[in-house]
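Structure in, sequence out. Go:
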């Protein structure tokens, strides 16, 4: 399995980070985004979902602004944390059959 590609670190767009970029909260948001950038998509979703559970209700929108993830993704991560599946996906991030079809299957023979 190839190592995960490291994503660019998202810059928080919350008003506090924009007006006070060296504040304690801005440092916290940068730290969250550094961790999120190093994770694969499933663990990224779960990590931010865990933050949503820990921070309490009404935190999905702020976490979306902080991390750049959609609210739907954060809700799904929170759901996975609160109700974990019994069987993991055999080490895969996505289920089998996902993604684009092979080019041979898409093109018609002439």
């Amino acid at each position: 399995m190839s190592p995960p590609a490291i994503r660019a670190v998202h810059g928080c767009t919350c008003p506090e980070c924009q007006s006070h970029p060296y504040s304690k909260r801005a440092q916290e948001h940068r730290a969250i985004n550094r961790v999120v950038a190093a994770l694969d998509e499933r663990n990224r979703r779960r990590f931010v979902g865990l933050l949503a559970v820990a921070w309490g209700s009404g935190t999905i929108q702020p976490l979306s602004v902080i991390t750049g993830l959609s609210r739907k993704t954060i809700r799904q991560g929170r759901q996975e944390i609160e109700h974990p599946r019994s069987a993991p996906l055999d080490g895969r991030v996505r289920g089998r059959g996902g993604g684009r079809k092979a080019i041979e299957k898409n093109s018609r023979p002439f």
